[in-house]
Amino acid sequence: MAVLEEPIKGVPTIKNYVNEEWVDSKGEELDVINPVKNETIAKVRMSTKDELDAAVQAAKEAFPDWRRTPAVTRARYLYRLKELMEENFEELSRIQTQEHGKTIDESRGETRRGIENIEVACGIPTMMMGDSSEDIAAGIDEYMIRVPLGVFGIIGPFNFPFMIPLWSAPYAVATGNTVVIKPSEQCPISQSKIAELVEEAGFPPGVWNVVNGAKEVVNGMLDHPDIVGITFVGSTPTARDVIYPRCGANGKRVIAQAGASNFLVIMPDCNVPGTVAALMTSFFGNAGQRCLAGQNAIVVGEDDRFYDDFMEAVTAAAKKIIIGNGLDESVQMGPVKDAQKKERILGCIEKGVQEGATIRLDGRAPTVKDGYPTDCFLGPTIFENVAPEMKIVTEEIFGPTMGIIRTKDLDGAIKICNENPYHNADAIFTSNGKDARKFQYEVNCGSIGINIGIVAPMAFYPFSGAAGSFYGILHTQGKEAVRFFTESKVCIHRWL
Ligand code: NAD
Hints:
Blueprint: E1 13-14, E2 16-18, E3 21-23, E4 29-34, E5 39-45, H1 49-68, H2 71-87, H3 89-100, H4 104-121, H5 124-127, E6 131-137, E7 140-148, E8 151-155, H6 169-174, E9 178-182, H7 189-201, E10 208-210, H8 215-223, E11 227-233, H9 236-249, E12 253-257, E13 262-266, H10 272-284, E14 294-300, H11 304-319, H12 339-354, E15 358-361, E16 381-384, H13 391-394, E17 401-407, H14 410-419, E18 425-429, H15 433-442, E19 447-450, E20 470-471, H16 478-484, E21 486-494
Parallel strand pairs: 1-5, 8-9, 8-11, 9-10, 11-12, 13-14, 13-18, 14-17, 16-17, 18-19
Antiparallel strand pairs: 2-3, 4-5, 6-7, 7-21, 12-20, 15-16
Bound molecules: nicotinamide-adenine-dinucleotide.
Nicotinamide-adenine-dinucleotide binds next to helix 8 and helix 9.
């Protein structure tokens, strides 16, 4: 099958987008790698403090007029942005594949899910409504309105470079705030392309800004007195040790969504072909680089025959996955983001072996379609004899691996899930409604799948997770994002 054309040509330097201007940064330059060929496809600069300050200042100055703009008018800018994204759907998707490595179908899914957040945010006139009560005392009414707060900082991870900032930005601007977005320095191109469409949609200057950089820019945002709140999606160490405490110390609102180690529970009465297919996408989709990815499967019951047949079906399906360039539509799994990440994942596999897990399928030396260099490629790796206390369970791997744990009964499986503080999303595969209900009721994570392996909430539901991987009270997406980006104002009115 032919490889689709790459949209990014040459090696462009990604600029900042500030106050409706495209600005060259003077900071240190970093390569943006396309992992398929392990080659540089763009350069991005790490913005200086002055450059960040200029973006925050532009956003601050844009805020008073933007907050006064009626919500229906603000929504119209988002409608236009959505239309432009639809017109550029394929290019936006191919950019993600080129800068990240995921398959084109995974990128198209990401584009769709990103756009859905804009669609939901277009409902802002209704979502932002307040409440009112008549006659709280004779002739006195009370009402509550929701008001925006100012400039918000939005910090993204590398693994969903298009979609994740859109879990926040559309709601932030729809509610009347202005934003400074800091994409991952590893995948900055998608947010730059979105900013081009923001410009074309005609948003007023300073409402939507993009500043590139790494941790220095993040630290600058966390300490900036004119940024009122932060949304962050990234790894647990960054969320736990940097974002949450520093926002607390600086009195900023914060949502920080972090890493995961998720479980898929397999009951012996599951539909085997459907379950195996779900496991393939859950564990190996996006090459495992997903906070909702399965990391370990828990096979319940003592029936060795079921276990052996199930494992044979899982292994056979994993062996068939076609690995290669995501712009080839026949490819089912792309590379991981870069050679360092591959090294880290190889280290996790090695640790698993040292701790006593056995390798049933070894993905460390994969066959890559069309002979691309294997620098950033891994195949699916399946471990057996995994124990809940092993590092391949307690720590996030973020690569295409599947551990298999066995337990006697469902209670044991639920216990394993709940003892791990990082299970953002767990799933059960069963044809027994009572067991499914028990699992849904007793498992304490934010997203639960029943006969579904990837539990990505639609844009009108909150994107929540487990206690250990979510910091802050509210979540991104939908109504909860609207609450995060607004403050309630209660007014009491005596009619004279
Ligand atoms: P990361 O924490 O390395 O980086 C995320 C952002 O923080 C980037 O913009 C980066 O520039 C910045 N950053 C990195 N180190 C920093 C530091 N020391 N101080 C300040 N800023 C810093 O995360 P990543 O590798 O880009 O993303 C992958 C992680 O994100 C995984 O752990 C994954 O599970 C998680 N993730 C979570 C969710 C969720 O909703 N829970 C969704 C997607 C990804």
